[in-house]
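Q: Hi! First time asking for a complex rather than a single chain. Here are the components, and I think there are three in total. Is that enough to go on?
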Amino acid sequence: MRRLAAFLALTAAIPLAAAQSWPSRPLRLVIPYAAGGPVDVSGRLLAAKLQESLGQPVVPENKPGAGGNIGVDQVAKSAPDGYTLVMSAIATLAINPSLYGSLPYDPLKDLRHVTLLVQVPNVLIVRNDLPAKNVKELIALAKERPGKLDFGSGSTGSTGHLAGEMFKMMTGTYMVHIPYKGSAPAIADMMAGRIDLMFDNLASALPSIKAEKLRALATTTRKRSSFLPDLPTLDEAGLKGFDMTTWWGVSVAAKTPQPIVDRLSAEILKAMDAPDMKERLHNMGSDAPSVRTPDQFAAFAAAELKTYTELVRRSGAKAE
Amino acid sequence: MEGIFHNLGIGFVECFRLQDITLWGMTFSHVPFNIIMCLIGVLLGTLIGVLPGIGPVATIAMLLPVTFNLSPVAALIMLAGIYYGAQYGGSTTAILVNLPGESSSVVTCLDGYQMARQGRAGPALATAALGSFFAGCFSTLIVAMFAPPLAEVALKFGPAEYFSLMVLGLVSAVVLAHGSLVKAISMVILGLLLGLVGTDVNSGVLRFAFGISELADGIGFVTVAMGMFGICEIIGNLEQKEKREIFTSKVSHLYPTKEDWKRIWAPVLRGTLLGSALGILPGGGALLASFGAYTLEKKVSKYAHEFGKGAIEGVAAPESANNAGAQTSFIPLLTLGIPSNAVMALMIGAMMIQGIAPGPQVMTERPQLFWGMIASMWIGNLMLVVLNLPMIGMWIKLLTVPYRILYPSILLFMAVGVFSISNQPFDCFLMALFGLLGYVCAKLGCEPAPLILGFILGPLMEENLRRAMLLSRGDPFVFVSPSKPISLGFLIAAAILLVIIAFPALKKKREEAFAAEDT
Amino acid sequence: MKIKSQQDFWAGLMFIAFGLFFVIVSQMHYQMGTAVRMGPGYFPTVLGGILALLGLIVLGGSLAEAGPDVPKFHFRPLIFLAASSLAFAYLLKPLGLMLASAALIFISAYGGHEFKFKEVAWLTVVLVISSVVVFVWGLALPFPVCPSFIESCPIR
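A: Yes, that's all I need. Here is the structure of the assembled complex.
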């Protein structure tokens, strides 16, 4: 009996021991997108910072493909020892499950969400000579010309696209969706007057807004953005309850021991709160997220999944 | 005009500005840091350009954290140096071992490699370096003087214009082949089709992937190029039963002869102008620069019959064009804040992290940054030509290594490069597959260059075609409507070019028919 | 009907095969949509059709005009080079850069005419060292250097 107890105590201590010795070798941070995008850049920033505090190298690895699904799937199926992290995003956790019909991983069951890193609002921007100076006028214009207005997005199923669909549903208007490969060409076409509006994320739209090459009408979050404090929110403008952001964070495989998850979470939060990192993330358009702990992140991801599953279904967007 | 010199002055001053730098705990005072970063950038760029498979995008991404601790000027100067340095390096491998490092070097393989096989690698490399230098200087001036108005022109290009431009580009791709016209067109179309594998932009549907998730983002250019140009070439060389050395040991002059100089000055000029013009178009302009220049040269040169067999114009024109295009592709970035390609997107990322919002106001709010970058481009080109010319001797020596030792080394670098694209073994598998395809095609008298160009242009063409149709709500005449003169112009030019290409072939057929009648 | 040009005959067949392949797959799986709103199947079907047609023209030409024969296929270099790349790719993660490179070098060298073991061995040593220096230390590519069953190896 005593031997059994001792054995049980020993086995219980192993994860604790592993957690205490973690990290004892380099970590991998899988970035499921091509190099250069905002997720990649912020991931590399984070990796550099974590390296300092963890004392072990954190190696970023780009594994692009299938809107992020390939990289996330790999980590979901990797060994749950806390050495493989992934940059999980709204696309891979909340949108793709319904957009793609079937995914090789379950975003809630196969992953343990650690920390939300960035939360960026989307902004409703229109071309300068569009005869609508605020959201009300835009809705009226859209009702006047059903099917005549074009709205661009960075890709089918992106937050820009879905925000547009949500807008159409809530206002009962019909606008044509024009997908692009990334926001940049869409913004270029809008500046040239070829498309009328877009729900782009703040980071990529801000320079053009400040340069007055486009006009911003509202933000998609419930709270106003600190970057454009004079800009009303869509919620204020009449679309009650409209609250969409683009977000991403760090996740690990589901069965990763709790002590490691807690330690990771603490370290990442420490890195995010460091003044230089805070400033850099802020420069990307992100106000510090209010979702901090792993449990909050998990709850947030679950809620977003529910929202977007419904939205994708009603809008009819499909990727396969 | 004085304004330009004043601004360039600001730029050069910024480049050579002496700073106090703290590195590794030690402080170095009065160091022209920006110039040093430029040198590091172009050195690194050349290195990765020479290594097939590893490109500027991956390198710049890896160096982004390093740039956080640098001043914005230094960071951007270094990153820009990597970008156009890679163009120089990519030409080197294209000429020496028929491996295009970047899509812009594909065309250089055609004649450059043939020149190398004939013992003329030296003049080929020198032509590439000097042509690129001239083009770099010229296009930097263009950027300095005409950036804002050129950017406005670029904005006029919508999906219809891009589509028509690409049709023109495709027709020119046919000119790249020197064999049967019908087979060349077929290869172009096959390339177009292969380029469609992957996720469709407009609908999000995954095409021709057959459940292989690695194909979700399509087949990479590097994979196809390494397979069809690299592996195929090595197999071809190994086929020859005699132990004949691939590169003749009799190496003639290291530098171009007087005769060469006479032949290359005009192509360099034409290539530069064409490249500068096409580079300003975001969304695929610079890609067309090199093979547009090649096509143009082939059509106007009196040595047209030598093209494909080692004509020096076939190196001079595309090399100048791609470097000119590389410099002018900064214009949309610096003036409008719009990236022309993945590298520019990374630079935007680097700027935003530093707190600089890219856009038109950068020129006025941060003249040191803007003009410092432009001045650094000129200085970088100078450094590159000073670095590359002496290295020609070294490269020539490398070619004298027996082929049985050379080719496993080449293969290793290719495999590492292709693998590092997404760290999956699948890409190497695809490379082997494309090697097989290239081998079969070579046996059947079909050339790979048109296929590769179709491959690059295919997805872009379709994307623009469908977007133009979406925006015009299904009106197919939008491409030729008088309200879109640019689009109309390109399509007319494409039609004319097609006639010019087809005419000699038709004429030959008619002559043969007449000859048959006479007998 | 005599095949006057072997090369063109098989080239034509190849193009027809590819063209039909793309048309059939597109028609089976992807929507055509309309010319107004082209579906994912539109462009591939049209292009595949054109390709098949062109292949037919090439085929027809091979029956009418004389042309070259198909040169001999040399399978040895083809197979060995392909095998060496595949070996490298699939052995890299489990066996690390050093062994995977060695595999590639040996297999590809064996596919050539002259295989001198000592020479290839020396080449392997030189290349492995330079790859580790350039790729792993210099460019920080995330390749494992040693096999996965050896723990204490410098990965960076």
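A: The mean pLDDT of chain B is 83. Let me know if you'd like any chain examined more closely.
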